Amino acid sequence: MSQMRPPAFVTGATEARRVVAIASPKGGCGKTTVSLNLALALARQGRSILLIDADINGDILSSVNARQRAEAGVFDILRGTHGIQQTLLKTMVPGFSILPAVGKRLPPPDLFLQDHTERWRQILGEASTLADLVLIDTPAGMFGTTHQILAASTHVLGVLQAEVLASRSFSRFAEGLDALPPEARPTIAGVFLNMVQMRQSPSLSVLQDACASLPAGWLFDTSIPHSPAFLQAADQGLPLRHLDELAPPAVAFLFDNLAAEAAQRLELQAAERKPRQFLL
Ligand SMILES: Nc1ncnc2c1ncn2[C@@H]1O[C@H](COP(=O)(O)OP(=O)(O)OP(=O)(O)O)[C@@H](O)[C@H]1O
Ligand SMILES: [Mg+2]
Predict the structure, then answer these.
(1) 145 has a pLDDT exceeding 80
(2) If we measure between CA atoms, which residue out of 101, 214, 135 comes closest to residue 167?
(3) What's the domain range around 235?
(4) Does 275 map to a domain?
(5) Ligand 1 pocket test: which of 24, 26, 32 has the largest number of ligand atoms within 8 Å of its C-beta?
(6) Ligand 1 neighbourhood includes 237 CB (under 6 angstroms)
(7) Is residue 247 assigned to a domain?
């Protein structure tokens, strides 16, 4: 990873509403996986969370093996055939809803040839009134649809795969944000590493390189290891935490850490506290 220039646009979050795009220059680094598990962890901490799948491939619903459940999605809202309320899917977790990408029919291909930034602003603005936090799983890359969503988001979280090729292309993350007009740039809430392989030195060197070359404050303390538990979760169509209610895989708990860090970085209000007491 080459040395990245310090961001001129990391500012304190001032917006009351948080609309957070999860983005990366490289595909397959875990955006969808992290979006789902992070959204769940934030919801379990007592916040209402709306997770929007903005990838035409509809991978959030694929992750929970429920593609057939979506009648319509955010791209139908974008083209004006549906509204948010009729498109939302509730989950078993109180306060956690998912807005799928598409329904049974794909939108016409020319939808992707136009600039919908203003429409995304309206949709995400409306979505932000329905939950404490809106998370958006974006398609790979920093341009195209992702560029438009970034321009309509208040914050961005970057995902860096702890792998050499991902590291080499990660400069595109800052370049993609720089390509936005300054007034449309989301605040960088941070970057975290996914798929860290502690026994593989090329993977560890990405971690070291990220510590050395990302601008101060970007890198989350929490990183997610490469784990076979994700395969199992995909197989069962569940978030990690729900693989086993009583004894989920250890990596599932890291999403609680990630959520706590994200909440701090996003300056989210603390969720309502239960009275503290130990002995009955
Ligand atoms: N920490 C991890 N350990 C092991 N496998 C992982 C991990 N994170 C994600 N994966 C797996 O890597 C694959 C790609 O993940 P995912 O689909 O979340 O990436 P993505 O960035 O959303 O991809 P795309 O750019 O295509 O949208 C999936 O099979 C997922 O289960
Ligand atoms: Mg994805």
Answers:
(1) yes
(2) 214
(3) 18-106+114-265
(4) no
(5) 32
(6) no
(7) yes
Ligand 1 center–CA 157 separation, angstroms: 16
Ligand showing the shortest atom-to-Cα distance for residue 239: 1
Does the residue 274 lie in any domain?
A: no
pLDDT value of residue 239: 97
Q: Which long-range contacts (CB under 8 A, 24 or more apart) does 165-168 make?
A: 165/26, 166/24, 166/26, 166/29, 166/206, 167/1, 167/206, 167/209, 167/210, 168/1
- Number of structural domains in the chain: 1
Q: Examine residue 100 and state whether it is found in any structural domain, yes or no.
A: yes
| Ligand closest in space to the Cα of 141 | 1
In this structure, what CATH number is given to the domain that contains residue 139?
Answer: 3.40.50.300
Give the side-chain half-sphere CA count within 13 A for 121: 9
- Residue-wise pLDDT for 223-268, tens only, equals 999 999 999 999 999 999 999 989 999 999 999 999 999 999 999 9
State whether the beta carbon of 195 lies less than 6 angstroms from ligand 1.
Answer: yes
What digits encode the pLDDT tens for the residues 161-198? 999 999 999 999 999 999 999 999 999 999 999 999 99
What pTM was computed for the model? 0.93
The 8-class DSSP code of residue 121 comes to: H
Report which ligand 1 atom has the smallest distance to the Cα of 35.
18
Q: What is the pLDDT of residue 6?
A: 38
